[in-house]
Amino acid sequence: MKKVLAVLLPVLLLAGCGRLANGGALVLPDPEDVSGVTVSWENRAVSNEDRDYIVRLLDAMKTAKNTGDASVQDVPEGGAWLARLDFAHRRAGTSTVFLYPKGGKLLLEQPYQGIYEADGALAELVREAWE
Q1: 123 CB contacts (<8 Å, ≥6 apart)?
Q2: How far is CA 49 from CA 34, 55, 97, 109, in A?
Q3: Quick one: pLDDT at residue 25?
Q4: If you average pLDDT over residues 57-86, what whole number do you get?
């Protein structure tokens, strides 16, 4: 039994470290726990408390694919177009993600969690917040 643990433990530890280095799973709040979302872009912000909009936004984020890249900073360097989405939780606190283009891809970054490739539907929903 000790031999099995001696071999298995290092393998599990290495696998866990690799997962952290390559970005983990996107962690999204339950729509029922969100009281609103604030979309910020170019020093402007708009808040939305519409339940349908919040559900559609979170559903669109669920389709983002993990790029394997790690997020290692509070705010990514998104260049000219960087949108910040802050989800206010009913009980307390917020969760934040960023959306920006890079290298012909639309990236969704969750600080210290990972970087994910999103599709154009998510960008359209973010733009919808300004209408």
Answers
A1: 99, 106
A2: 9, 11, 17, 22
A3: 78
A4: 88
**Calpha distance 13→2 (Å, rounded):** 16
Q: Are 69 and 20 in contact (CB under 8 A)?
A: no
Instruction: Give φ, ψ of 8 to 5 degrees.
Output: -75, -40
Strand partners, 88: 36, 94
- Which H or E run contains 31? none
Strands 105-110 and 94-102: antiparallel
Amino acid residing at 57: L
Full strand arrangement of the beta sheet holding 65-66: 44-48, 34-41, 83-89, 94-102, 105-110, 114-118, 65-66
Name the pTM for this structure: 0.78
Asked whether residue 89 carries a pLDDT value surpassing 90, the answer given is yes
The answer to whether the beta carbons of residues 40 and 123 sit under 8 Å apart is: no
Mean of the per-residue pLDDT values for the chain?
82
